[in-house]
Here is the input.
Amino acid sequence: MEPNGYHNAWIVLLDEDKKYLTSAEAGYGPAFDPMRTQLKNGDWPRCVREVLQRKEILITDNPKSTCYNCPLSHYLQNRSAYTISLRQNNILYGIFSACIPESFAEDKEEQALFKETAEDIALSLYSVKTEKARRQAVESLRKSDERFRVALKNSPIIVWSQDKELRYNWIYNPNPAFNPEEVLGKKDEEILPADDARALTEIKQKVLKSGKGSREEVRMTVKGTPFFYQLVTEPLRDAQGNLTGITCASVDITEFRGIQQKLEKSFDTTIETMSKIVETRDPYTSGHQSRVSQLATRIALELNLSREKIKGIRIAALIHDIGKIAIPSEILTNPGKLTDIEFSLIKSHSQKGYDIVKGINFPYQIAPIILQHHERNDGSGYPKGLKGDEILLEAKIIGVADVVEAMSSHRPYREALGIDVALEEISKNKGILYEPEVADACIKLFKEKGFKFE
Ligand SMILES: [Fe+2]
Here is the structure.
């Protein structure tokens, strides 16, 4: 205050809602306390109320008589007060008020000097606030980075990014077999076997092209060892929203895949055992279900069905006659003509197979396929006489494969009819008993693609 010749002065800092933050005084001492209380309560004295509305200095002459609710007014006898709001970039930081000799109050130079002082204070407050915000941002970034590193430390997750040309430009927690330097700046084809690289590049290019993330299971052979990963790929954009590359996170699921494969193998063994149990009851049909399964799977592949559907067809075909365990083996192996009752007993095998299998929690829909494998398109099949679209495609495929295998093999009551006769039957009844596209795929397999039962 001294250099400017002010008797005393005070400053109050306000928040964005113009609420009291803090205040300071010079030259008043304890006499400022009532004013501080008033400011805290938002009970603004006249000078504050006025400067909140404007940017210019408010000059108050003889405050003792004009400022009735100002606790400092009795201090200001024969003096004047300058009051101004502290603003920078249109942000209000507070109010600055100083008491000067009455004789200086109208001095333009004095007023300019006071205004300059207020501007300096506001600029300092602005810088402090900006610096504080910058430091807070840096600190929050550091904390988030730290949290990210701690979370990923010892985790099986690898994260990285690649630019638009799919060159690796950042990698964290790399596979122990990798040295990040061996990867950075390179593309997949420079570090992985051709097949793996091609599959990976295809996934990543799809993300770049569509701008949409993906989640895939992939194989990466690292220095001769195959690893399986769950790979999550997301497009990466700059602040303006332009695509700059991709970011990926992957989890090593090699161990899990190993367990899954063992489980699948043991599941397959169980199915094969079930299949063989049925066939021990009827040695003439030994290998029938396995051959039907081979053909049905090939037809399903030919029809481009999903992997899951194909798996279901393979399994269902392997045990499609499982209901025959419930039929006396004398009937199954009877070389002579069957009575109507015997024939209807044999026909009950699809329902019985369904009943056996329906309680087992297979990963695919098996029971309904077994139930329907003797249904025919025109409704002439059994057990329900379903027609066309009422029959599952899987059951139609197994139905065709079943007929072809049975006709081309030896039976107790007849010699093998041969594959040509079997295919003639399928062709003749295509669209009547058999689904046309299934019949066509089956015929094509034998006639054009050299399919043979093993
Ligand atoms: Fe059957």
Q: What stands out?
A: Residues 320-321, 349, 373-374, 402 surround fe (ii) ion (CB under 6 Å).
